[in-house]
Design a protein that fits this description.
The complex is a heterodimer of chains A (about 240) and B (about 220). Chain A is α+β, with helices and mostly antiparallel strands. Chain A is built from five helices and twelve strands. Chain A is about 25% helix and about 20% strand. Classes of the chains: A alpha+beta (about 240), B mainly alpha (about 220).
């Protein structure tokens, strides 16, 4: 097609102007997100997007899909990370408080069927290690010791005895067959560093949900507070 | 009088220019995430000629202690990045434009000619065509890489729900390395792409914005 210089300039200008407007709109969106109201550590539009991802994650989640298990030869060094809620020694008369029911002793937990699995612990920072964990299924404890109707609730909340560290779990993840209330690591009783006397070992979630030194378990239809979700991280943080 | 020739359809131009900020945000937020456990390096034994990344690099880009923010950006823009990429691929399939992009049996020979020509090792003129062999290979590879980023990304994001995929990629840690290497690949692509665009000149660049190329009569 023949065109005059004028025509070429006009069409060029028009295209660049459209491009400029599109670029400004894109930059505006970026600027709006960055300068939005802070919602627990991240701009609100990003928080909304994470909540939408969480709905997707829960819809995707299947209890029949298990985290990969490994061989004993794959077991590596456990890494200690995070001391929140672990001040001092655990109480010698420690009992697990289950809201609305009687406290549960470690012996009662050990009387539940013992489950062991070798799974990969994945920190949200990006590192991981493979370890053998032993304990009772969260679901077994809930069925045996939680008040009636508790396991029908949408959420479970766990916190350390001092209430400094707390996590919330959707029901499907809490009741997942690999979700353990662990009292053994690599065949030995848990050390304080790793959350003695009882910790959560939930291989379908990032490490931040694997609460150490559990003090109390609650069941509710409203979403429990979550320490890292209050500090900018995704609430679901599941795999 | 000059001639103008349609070169790039409007859809392709939009996909291309929308991809640019989306991929930039994905790489930047990916760096915010990677910083939290920046263990990758090029080296052997105790020798580490290069560590990803030197402190000066992080300082210059303001990267550090922003993991949660990085994840939040990454997990929003991944949808837009994927959507734009899928739309692009569907467009090239249904418009027939894939014919200009997918390598065929003469592509490799053409690509070698292009490289020799660009390195001034060959003086033979290149045939005039929409995309030369080197471009076909580069532009098709980048789509395969994009697909790789989606797949490795899914394997890292949901390694239990997509456990089969994660295992196929060699496991969780391997999928992370692959995801990272693809990103390095984009950066290398970008450097070469940008220098080729500069060398090709204004008429070529303008075509990616306006869609047309100006051809002087007699060409």
């Amino acid at each position: 097609m023949k065109a005059t210089d004028q025509e070429i300039s006009r069409r060029t200008r028009r295209s660049f102007l459209t491009g400029g407007i599109a670029a400004a709109a894109g930059f505006g969106t970026w600027y709006w997100i960055r300068n939005s109201f802070d919602d627990n550590g991240i701009p609100r539009p990003l928080r909304r997007a994470e909540e939408a991802d969480d709905v997707f994650s829960r819809a995707l989640f299947s209890e029949t899909r298990l985290a990969k298990t490994f061989d004993a030869a794959d077991i590596g060094e456990a890494r200690v990370n995070g001391k929140i809620g672990l001040d001092g020694e655990p109480n010698s008369d420690w009992k697990l408080i289950v809201e609305g029911a009687s406290p549960v002793s470690l012996d009662q937990i050990k009387a539940l069927p013992k489950v062991e699995h070798i799974t990969q612990f994945k920190c949200i920072e990006g590192w991981n290690y493979i370890m053998k964990w032993g304990g009772a299924r969260f679901s077994d404890l809930a069925r045996a010791h939680a008040p009636s109707g508790a396991i029908e609730k949408r959420w479970a909340g766990l916190e350390t005895p001092d209430g400094e560290y707390y996590v919330g779990l959707d029901r499907a993840s809490a009741m997942h067959p690999q979700t353990l209330l662990a009292y053994e690591m690599n065949g030995l009783p848990l050390t304080n560093d790793h959350g003695a006397p009882l910790r959560l070992m939930i291989p379908v979630k990032y490490g931040i949900k694997n609460l150490k030194r559990i003090g109390k378990i609650t069941f509710s239809d409203s979403r429990p507070r979550d320490y890292w979700a209050e500090n900018g991280y995704d609430y679901d943080s599941g795999f | 009088m000059k001639q103008i020739e349609s070169k790039h359809p409007a859809a392709i131009r939009w996909f291309h220019w929308i991809n640019f900020p989306l991929l930039s945000i994905m790489i930047w937020s990916g760096l915010l995430i990677y910083w939290a456990n920046d263990v990758y390096k090029i080296g052997w034994g105790n020798t580490t000629p290069f560590h990803f990344f030197p402190q000066g690099f992080y300082d210059a880009l303001g990267i550090g202690s922003r993991l949660s923010e990085g994840m939040a950006w990454h997990f929003l823009f991944m949808w837009l990045f994927a959507l734009n990429g899928v739309c692009y691929v569907l467009y090239t399939i249904f418009s027939g434009d894939w014919r200009y992009l997918v390598p065929n049996r003469t592509t490799l020979r053409e690509a070698i000619q292009v490289v020799l020509h660009d390195l001034h090792l060959s003086k033979a003129p290149l045939p005039r065509q929409k995309f030369n062999g080197a471009q076909k290979i580069a532009y098709s590879s980048i789509i395969v890489m994009g697909f790789g980023s989606l797949v490795t990304g899914l394997a890292i994001w949901k390694p239990v729900q997509f456990g089969g995929l994660t295992a196929m990629l060699g496991g969780y840690a391997a999928a992370r390395v692959e995801h990272f290497l693809l990103t390095i690949g984009y950066v290398l692509f970008f450097v070469i792409h940008l220098s080729q665009v500069i060398l090709a000149g204004w008429n070529n660049f303008r075509a990616m914005v306006t869609g047309f190329e100006v051809v002087n009569e007699g060409d």
